[in-house]
Amino acid sequence: MTINETHIDLLSRAFENDPMFIHLLSNKYRSKKLIRFILKQNRLLDGLVLTDDMNDPSYVAIVDRPRNLRHVSIWAKVKLNIEMFLLLFRLPFHVLRFLTNYQKTTFSIAPNQPHYYITMIGVDPSHQGKGIGKKVLREIHEIAESSQPAYPVALDTENQQNVAFYERVGYELMDTKIIDGLEIYCMRLPVA
Q1: pLDDT tier, 85 (very low <50, low <70, confident <90, very high otherwise)
Q2: Which residues have C-beta within 8 Å of that of residue 82, sequence separation ≥ 6?
Q3: PANTHER family, per this entry (predicted)?
Q4: What is the DSSP string of 11-54?
Q5: Nearest-angstrom CA–CA distance, 22 and 31
Q6: What secondary structure letter does DSSP report for 163?
């Protein structure tokens, strides 16, 4: 699926009040740079991007598939390393340091077996509260359950209010970590 600026704008608006984005990024310009990188990384690693419309989406979800980096092509690894290098010039060093710590910490808590990982689900603020987030989660859960074998799903959130929402749909809180003063809630949906 081709993602365009409309999708990046939606994700930027959806995460405008997210604790991590507030903590790290001082403006929408930097937020969009990070979102573009996340999308490129997802594409290079054969991830999933779910949305309902190419021109006027109400949501965008970025999901990493279960993978083993040994099965990623050398060309994809080279391109990913180039994108990571370019990120050095697009975001402040403290942001990159935080993201590195975040990734190490959350990977250490994630399920040891292959799993789907929800990187982002962004619902347009004008559509929030209408059940779209639950619908998107159901779609992701169906994908994970229909895989052969079925895989668990993991996610991390920095918004404490999200923890109760995810628990209501079956997620378990695995651990809570603090990185640079920001609380990270690591969650998992076990295989049904």
Answers
A1: confident
A2: none
A3: GNAT FAMILY ACETYLTRANSFERASE, N-ACETYLTRANSFERASE DOMAIN-CONTAINING PROTEIN
A4: HHHHTTT-HHHHHH-SSHHHHHHHHHHHHHHHHHTT-EEEES-S
A5: 9
A6: H
- Integer Cα distance of 71 and 69 in angstroms: 5
For helices 74-90 and 93-109, the axis angle rounded to 10 degrees is 140
Number of residues that this document lists for the chain: 192
pLDDT of residue 142: 96
**pLDDT tens track for 101-137:** 999 999 899 888 899 999 999 999 999 999 999 999 9
Task: Give the separation between CA 98 and CA 96, rounded to whole angstroms.
Answer: 5
Report residue 19 as tokens.
Answer: 């604790």
Please, what is the end-to-end C-alpha distance for the chain in angstroms? Answer: 28
- The structure's pTM equals 0.91
